[in-house]
């Protein structure tokens, strides 16, 4: 199947998991994750496999509860996988490292620091001089259109401004991989559209793994989309999107959005039916005993 974007470029839609179009830089290999809860075991992720090429912007999309955030924390090295591994440039990821920076849904700024000092915080931890910290932080804020806000504290900034400060703070560390966990989920639609453009511009040339529950946002932002099934999350298919991002949301992409929504709804219905059948079988077995 092919879909035309707003500029008339064609989008190749892959029917199943595939390798990255670029040389693999970040590899997610057979990742599964189990959680213990209320005396039972919950399977959050099952055999997740995909790759991210260097400089590629990949968006993972799926319904709430499919394990997207868990997967991102595993890639960041903050949460161990039950099985499988993450490889960065061929080396296993076993713990958190400064080469991977994670941006959360909440900006998580330090309330006692100004915008400039929030951006400079990681540089301070890295041992950069005061003059370097100031120069780099001010340049990053200027790129985000926040030069006039550099001396303001988080409570004096709007939600969108706070998120831009958080993005600037991550980018000044020049991470090899930028991980984003639904960073635009809490902003209004108008601001979200503006920030989508700023994110793509700021992350040009960066390797980015971005997760969202919004199919529309995925289609607007991504070089490639990885679609996860409802819990347990596993890769249903990948789509390589042609043309520059962020994309105008054309009628063709609206059709693709509806197609993906329908696919995920069908998958969720099948999952719920299977779970109900398993529960009934378990109860029947208990009665028979």
Number of structural domains: 2
Question: What coarse outline follows from CA principal-axis ratios?
Answer: globular
CATH class of the largest domain: Alpha Beta
In whole angstroms, how far apart are the ends?
A: 52 Å
| Mean pLDDT rating | 84
User: H/E order of the elements?
Assistant: EEEEEHEEEHHHEHEHEEH
Write the CATH fold name of the largest domain.
Rossmann fold
Strand content: 25-35%
- CATH superfamily placement of the largest domain: P-loop containing nucleotide triphosphate hydrolases
Count of individual beta strands:
12
Q: Output the strand order for the largest sheet.
A: 1-2-12-11-5-10-9-8
Q: Which percent range fits the helix content?
A: 25-40%
Low-confidence stretches: 1-21
Give the count of helical stretches: 7
Based on the coordinates given, report the CATH architecture of the largest domain: 3-Layer(aba) Sandwich
Round the Cα radius of gyration to an integer and report it: 21 Å
Structural category: alpha/beta
* Largest sheet descriptor: 8 strands, mixed
Structure description:
With 289 residues, this protein is α/β, with parallel strands linked by helices. It folds into 2 domains: 24-99 and 175-272, P-loop containing nucleotide triphosphate hydrolases (Rossmann fold); 110-174. It contains 7 helices and 12 strands. The protein has helices at residues 68-76, 115-125, 130-143, 159-171, 189-202, 215-221, 251-288; strands spanning 2-4, 10-13, 24-37, 40-53, 57-61, 83-88, 91-92, 100-103, 177-181, 207-212, 224-228, 235-240. It has an 8-stranded mixed beta sheet, with helices on both faces. The chain has a 4-stranded antiparallel beta sheet with strand order 4-3-6-7, with helices on one face. 38% of the residues are buried.
